[in-house]
Amino acid sequence: MSNPVLVHSLEANYYTDPQIFQAEQAGLLARTWQYAGHVSQVENMGDYFAFQIAGQNLFCIRGRDGEVRAFFNVCQHRAHELVKGVGNCKVVVCPYHAWTYELTGQLRSGPNIKAVEGFERAEICLTEARAEVFNGFIFVNLDENARPMDDWFPGVREELRAFVPNIDELKPLEWVEVPERCNWKVSVENYSECYHCAINHVTFATGVVKPETYDIQPQGYCLRHTTECQNLDAMSYPIDLEANEHAGDYSSWYLWPLFSFQVYPGNVLNTYHWRATGPDTVTVWRGWYTVGGTESDVIRTLAIQDRQTTVEEDIHLVESVQRGLDNRGYRPGPLVLDPKCGVNSEHSIRVLQQWMREGVDEI
User: What is the DSSP annotation of 212-274?
Assistant: First the structure.
C-alpha cells in the first residue's frame, strides 16, 4: 500500500518576492472582480468617487441615464488625472487644459479644438472599465473580456439576499481601516480558515458562533463559510431568532481574491475588502451597514468589539506569519486536510492556495 501524498503549503517566495507581487498587480489583480465602492456613494446623477485597483487610478460616476460606470482616471489629451476624492459634476472637466467629457466618457469640448483640421471629437472617449452592481456593491474588472460576476460566484447574489432581506436599503454606517504588515495572501488565508479560531478568537468563538458547526466550502471562485450562532445566553449582542429563517445563522462569502460579504447572526451585514499595497503590506477595510446608514448602538458596539478582539488578534497573527516567511528556517509544512472537513481542517486553504498558484503561474 502506497503512502498518501501530503499537500504542502505554498513556498515562502509567493508571499515575499516583490517580482511576484508586481506580476500579480499586472495580471491576477487586473483581471479579477475588485470592490470599488457602494451605490450610496453615487446616489445622484453626476456623483463620483475615485479609487484604485491593481495600481491603477479609476473613478465611478452615475450617468444621466442612471447607469453607474467606471473609467480610468486619466484625460485622453495629455494624461492629467481628472478627479480626486468624491464629488458631483454635470460634466467631467480636466483641470489641466479643460478638455470636457460627458458623463458617458465621450469628449464634449476642448479649448480651440475646432481649429485642428481633422479633429474628430466623436472618436475620443475616456477608457471604460467593466463595472457591475452586485446587491448594491460596485465591483470593477480591468479585463474587458471578464466573465460576469454570477459566473465567478454562482448562487452568491441570491443567497446573500436570503440572509439579508433588506440589503437594498442598507448603507455604510462605519468603515474601519486596518493596516497590516503582511502580504495580502497571508491576510486572506488567515480569514479563510477557522482552524485557529478557538485558540486565538475567544470572543468570536464563544460569543458569536459555534465553532463545532463551522465549515468552509468552495462555490465557484467563492469560499462559503457556514455555522450556527452561539447559544443565546452566551451571545455577545442581542438577536431575534424569530426575525426570519436565517436570523440564527452565520455565513460568509469570500469572493476571490480581495472581498468578503459576512453576515453575523441577527442578519448583520458586514464586509471585508483588502487593498494590496505592497509585497509585505495590505490594508483591510471592515464595513458595517444599517438601513439607510442610520445609527445603531448594537452595530456600533459590535464594530468596536470586533476591532478590539478578532481584528486586533488577527493583526498579530498575520504579521508574525509574514516575519516567519522571511525566516530562513521555514520549510512549508503539510496542510491538515480532514476528509470530513469541519473547523479543524484546512481544505479551504488547499483550494485558496491553488488559486494563488494559478494566479502567478498564468502570468
Answer: GG-EEEE-SSEEEEEEEBPPGGG-SS---TTSSTTTTEEEEEEETTTEEEEEETTTEEEEEEE
Could you name the CATH architecture of 34-141? 3-layer Sandwich (2.102)
* Per-domain boundaries in the chain: 34-141, 152-361
pLDDT in tens, 305-317: 899 999 999 999 9
> How many residues in the chain?
363
In the block, which residue shows the cell 431575534? 240
Q: What cell does 39 get? A: 451605490
Under 8 Å between Cβ of 249 and 147: no
- Give the whole-angstrom CA distance, residue 42 versus residue 62: 6
pLDDT single digits (tens) 49-78: 999 999 999 999 999 999 999 999 999 999
What topology does CATH give the domain 152-361? Naphthalene 1,2-dioxygenase Alpha Subunit; Chain A, domain 1 (3.90.380)
pTM: 0.93
